[in-house]
Specification:
alpha+beta, four-stranded mixed sheet, four-stranded antiparallel sheet, 8 helices
Length: 272
């Protein structure tokens, strides 16, 4: 079985409050995008181990047992018997980008194991397992535009269609760690309702749909802010940083042609 775990962008991100457990309550909209990895599972009863992992594309710089696909497998194996499998992961979504690439791999791994081995796990149960792997992993189970609250795990599907737009992603060779991003944030409840704001024309989002991380991240990494400015200069209807960065995305009515230093990751394509 082969599937293509897609990435996501955050449209708007409000850090509402800090929780007693040290995490933060958020308000954001997750939107699935066409950029994707490839993930294949093959049963191989000749293996000496329970699994074998193959990685192509972007290198996953972590021990095999720490790979999030393997963690998803081990989570399923707590309650179900799975035969020896080969896991082939081709990475195209960059790490530390605010695009949820690893979370998507984990969620697709859970769903693929459920389907391939007919485990009959409901989507609600898959989401309960998914949250054990990461805050935004549950989103990729249903993989539909959603208003996310809590730590990103409380999901409410919304009616948002960006299929008329082109998406451009630009990630400089800068890694913004999550603790670093949060260190510059003062949580504050928003006086706006994000899903209502997204009912407005995309061209009106610029002044009202904000990512709270941008102020502190842009101050420390002005190069990231310059990307956002340039996306608008190139004609973006809306541009923002995704999650805690460092990817900046732009939505365009016409196909963009964004040229930057070769060390940057750049991807563009039609939304679906």
């Amino acid at each position: 079985m082969i599937q293509f775990p897609n990435a996501k962008i955050n449209i708007g991100l409000n850090v509402v409050s800090k929780r007693p457990d040290g995490y933060h309550n958020l308000e954001t909209v997750f939107y699935p995008i066409p950029l994707s990895d490839a993930l294949e599972i093959i049963v191989n009863n000749d293996l000496d181990n329970d699994y074998q992992l193959f990685n192509t594309g972007i290198t996953v710089d972590a021990p095999t047992n720490e790979n999030i696909c393997v963690k998803a497998l081990e989570l399923i194996k707590k309650d179900h018997t799975i035969p020896p499998i080969e896991i082939h992961l081709h990475k195209a979504t960059p790490f530390g980008a605010g695009l949820g690439g690893g979370s998507s791999d984990a969620a697709f791994m859970l769903s693929m194991l459920n389907t391939l081995f007919e485990l009959n796990i409901s989507n609600d149960e898959l989401k309960k397992k998914a949250i054990q792997l990461g805050a935004d992993v549950p989103f990729f189970i249903d993989n539909k535009p959603s208003f996310a609250t809590g730590i990103g795990d409380l999901l409410q599907p919304i009616n948002l269609d960006l299929s008329d737009y082109y998406l451009c992603l630009v990630k400089p060779p800068i890694h913004v760690s999550t603790p670093e991003a949060y260190s510059g944030i003062t949580p504050k409840a928003s006086d706006r309702i994000l899903p209502n704001d997204l009912n407005l024309p995309v061209e009106q989002w610029k002044d009202i749909v904000k990512n709270d991380f941008e102020t502190s991240v842009f101050k420390k990494y002005p190069e990231i802010e310059k990307i956002k400015t340039e996306l608008y200069n190139q004609g973006a209807a809306y541009a923002a940083m995704s999650g805690s960065g460092s990817t900046v995305f732009g939505l365009f009515k016409d196909e963009p042609h964004f040229k930057v230093d070769p060390s940057y990751f750049v991807w563009s394509g039609k939304m679906k």
